[in-house]
Amino acid sequence: MVGLGRMGANMARRLLRDKHDIAAFDPNPAAVKEIQKEGAKGAGSLEELVKTLKAPRVVWLMIPAGKPVDDAVATLARILEKGDLVIDGGNSYYKDDIRHAEELSKKGIQYMDAGVSGGIWGLQIGYCLMAGGDKKDFDRVEPLLKSLAPKEGYLYTGAVGSGHFVKMVHNGIEYGMMQAYAEGFEIIEASPYKQDMAKLAHLWNQGSVVRSWLLELAEGAFVADAELKDIKGFVEDSGEGRWTVHQAVDTGVAAPVITLSLYNRFLSRQTNSFTNRVLAALRHQFGGHAVVKSK
Questions:
Q1: If residue 74 lies in a helix (H) or strand (E), which one and from where to where?
Q2: Is position 174 annotated as part of the catalytic site?
Q3: Residue 34 is among the residues annotated as catalytic for this protein
Q4: pLDDT at 244 over 90
């Protein structure tokens, strides 16, 4: 396991619980020491990690998409051997998977991509896994997938790239669902009918059409802070929402909800945006409407 962040460390723990032999590396030595205490073999570098493993090896990456994965794949292409297997379980772009598979295949090294959903709750509940690559490689690592996933919680999705492709769309859907919940609760908050939001979220999960795990998480957030006073409305995006919108454009698929939910995240990061200043100025120019002067 390469990468012992919020996801990687807990995935290693779940595999250890099922008696898999795990070697782990992370640039943070403290993270490696922590997982060593729980039964994993520690490594101080990718080179050391590879030496720890017996061929044929399986190296599972849980590191940030982009350059970190590119660099790791380049290093592994140099130090792994024919028959070894690299799995990227992070949030990489599916077209990068295709490129990485081609690069590694020149050395006889196999490659799979695994979309992983479950967040910080995966250790307890299990991870939903979407695995792309050669079917023989999928069969080879299926025992790992069974240990990581809940019952019926993993799927072979097809050729290299397919796992991250469907995970990308999954995250785009997640954007839209979260946005709908957020807007709905704000409509209620702004109404004359004041509600206990935690109780309402709990109620809606008792057989209603909009019940979901996200609604359970909303209930938990409202229990902790009914008005969410300690949270600033600044919402980042992981990149997969953007890729989903790009894919929709490339294939001519209308995806207005996902697109607008992504744009709303962009808006959340702006204060006194230039767009809104232009709007205010135009209303003042054509209609003489009052403007609020900046201090």
A1: helix 67-79
A2: yes
A3: no
A4: yes
